[in-house]
Amino acid sequence: MQITILPASSKTAQATIRSLLSTPTNTNLHIRGLYRDPTRAPPEFTSHPAFHATHGDIRDANTLDLAGTDALFVMTPPRHDVDDIFQWAREASENTRAAIERSSVRRVVLLSSMGAEFESGTGEIRTNHIAEEILQDAAPEVVIVRAAYFMENWAGGVSSVKDQENPYFESVITPLEYEVPMVAIKDIGSACAAHLLTPTLPESPYIFELHGPKPYSVLDVQRAFKDATGKDVAVRPVEKQDLPAFFGQFLPPALVGPFVEMTVGFLPGGVMAQGNPDAEKRVQRGRTGLGDVIGGFFEGSA
Predict the structure, then answer these.
(1) What would the DSSP string read from start to end of 94-132?
(2) Residue 270 main-chain phi, psi, to 5 deg
(3) Integer Cα distance of 113 and 108 in angstroms
(4) Angle (CA) 75 90 124, round 5°
(5) What CATH number labels 2-150+183-213+277-287?
(6) In whole angstroms, what is the distance from residue 193 CA to residue 145 CA?
(7) Which of 105, 146, 134, 90 is nearest to 4 (CA)?
(8) Contact of 168 with 235, CB cutoff 8 Å
């Protein structure tokens, strides 16, 4: 069986590859990772006899060779160097679909996001809605994994937690006691690998949300930072009215609006928080807890 990973450079793609390579029952498994620059593939993968890194750029349909691929993992890689991220999502997904149609791919596993079912009010997450619309029938079997908020997003607070006399982290999730689903990248990789390998699906497209073992609040994040460092850590909440200035510190102007709308969309009163009362959602849960992920940020620290 040949599985292709497109693109193979993201953290979620790497977690999927890692999970596939650790599957002992698939001795005939061959994994192709498509990279803009194959020489940058991690040695932990290229040293494995079942893995092969090759050139493929999702920005250029002509470079996407899926010949011999039985199952394809795909996601829309974020880009901060374009003025229109939604047009980029459309181009990337159409390039992927064209490559699938030139091949004999039987199954596609698309990594998407919670909230991708909504056409508007979700900001940056609408890139995943676009990808779902284009790829939901691109192959005979399609799996759509709508992942929750990544636990690893909290890595952005590590420097201020470690380097300040009065350690703190900032949170765009408010109020602090508000609980949201979160999931570890490791569990995303495990779920995607499992659905690339499972013999049959109940339907196509097969859509489910992927959460962690339980929902978490920012207060849980604060406790996890305290447990990991052994010191008190403050939270600096970023209120809704301050979101444009906050994101404007590190995002290009064209992305500030989509990130503000995305954040407001999953806070209380937002379209994603309200949900669709008519939708029946499948939810699968990972096993990795928030404390394990945040503790991992500090492994090896003095």
Answers:
(1) HHHHHHHHTTT--EEEEEEETTTT-SSS-GGGHHHHHHH
(2) -75, 165
(3) 16
(4) 70
(5) 3.40.50.720
(6) 11
(7) 105
(8) yes
pLDDT at position 299: 86
pLDDT at 296: 96
> How far is 197 from 24, CA to CA, in rounded Å?
12
Question: Which residue spans within the chain are E strands per DSSP?
Answer: 2-6, 30-35, 51-55, 71-74, 107-113, 141-147, 149-150, 168-171, 182-183, 206-211, 234-237, 283-285
Domain coordinates in residue numbering, the chain: 2-150+183-213+277-287
The pLDDT averaged over each successive group of 10 residues in the chain (302 residues) is 97 98 81 97 96 96 96 95 95 98 96 96 97 98 98 96 89 97 98 97 96 98 96 96 97 96 95 72 95 92 52
Q: Give this prediction's pTM.
A: 0.95
Structure tokens at 50: 């079942």
